[in-house]
Amino acid sequence: MTTPEARKSRATAIDLSAASAVAWLSLTAFFALVVLYFVGVDQGATSVFGDNMYIHEFVHDARHLLGFPCH
What we know:
Blueprint: H1 4-8, H2 18-41, H3 54-58, H4 60-66
Transmembrane segments: 21-39
Keywords: Membrane, Transmembrane, Transmembrane helix
Pfam families: CbtB
């Protein structure tokens, strides 16, 4: 059977305040824009991070899958 201690445990409430929602939305939008830059804009030669092609080659197949031209 169950013990009395198991019945007393409750899940904690989720904070759904407006400030929390704005913070999560802002972080999610920033992360989405960073991912969009790396997949859709970074071309290697015009990269903000130097003249290396590592980021371009890492997301190369994702670029083609999403329809971004890169050749």
